[in-house]
Amino acid sequence: MNTQGNPPLLTLGPRVRKSPFYDATVAAGARAFTNYNHMYMPTSYGDTTAEYWSIVSGVSLWDVAAERQVEISGPDAVAFTQLLTPRDIDGCPVGRCRYVIFLDEDAGIVNDAVLYRLEQDRFWLSPGDGDVLLWAKAAAAMTSFDVTVHEPDASPLQLQGPLAPRVAYELFGELALELGYYQCREVELKGIPLVLSRTGWSGELGYELILQDGQRGNELWQLCMDAGAEFGIKPACPSLARSVEGGLLSYCSDITLNDNPFTIGMARLLDIDKPQDYIGKAALQRIARQGTPRRLVGANFGGAPIAPNEHFLPVTVAAETVGHITRCVYSPRLEHNIALVNVPTELSSPGTKIDLEFPGDRRSAEIVALPWFPAEKTIPPW
Prior knowledge:
Distance between the termini: 36 Å
Largest sheet: 6 strands, mixed
Mean pLDDT: 96
Shape: globular
CATH topology of one domain: Gyrase A, domain 2
Helix content: 10-25%
Strand content: 25-35%
CATH superfamily of one domain: Probable tRNA modification gtpase trme, domain 1
């Protein structure tokens, strides 16, 4: 929450879509919303620190239906999806997910997404905030591929935290434990059609329950809350502190059209020279040869707990602006402030000293490697 003065209000109305879980989140005490992918998404239930601890030490339930899916299906679905991303998706079997990125002709990042392969010729793309649906439809219209691109009735609900597997076991039985990291399965829960996946945006153990019947959102929410009651489940929202700690990047904040995949450290997930053509291929190959001029890295800094930034803020060296803060926050576990910063590559090595410029305040900082806390991937026995 903004702690500097009175934050502006977000006016609710029929023009912006509400999620299938909207009524349930309001009843659960949602206090603030944002507009994400043309839909209202909760951002606070009143105490973001309490939500943080429920995510990192317990279990939490998030309405992230604003993560709108883009479905690609048809005889040429594989070939068309290959065109959209520099990652080779041929090796992704049905029932698996991949983290992918989309580029423009100059290798600027259009968006990032989790790709689900639900059938041999049916994919879902789950992107960040941005009009990927329109971008993909335009790409399809400009080619001769035999594909259908549309937004399905699919609304994610995230179950996140170290106790999430126990709640998922109450709901889905052994499947919850058998499902591997970045795997997915189409299932039903008491007749409610879902895609269940071992994915999420918390860096903790977690699942996404992607509802495929928008009329049953409140019912699904209550089933999850009932199953989690004995484990102290709490409604929560994507946590700024936990996402920054985990190096989980946010489109429009940490990733923009001015960045390329090497800027955000994605080289390991690229198949730059795959035989299939893809949008931005020549530009990305050129950057791979020449090197990227900028990098997104972490920074530690002290002083009083910092308020989250509302705008990009300057990074300076010797009073000269060299980059910008994308997001910053106080980390409850680290007990100091942290930030994601976009700086020249020559200033991106751990240990480099920089200054962070806040309104009326300058903080000395040190570059560190990402992430502070790696993602939890393995479900421990209990």
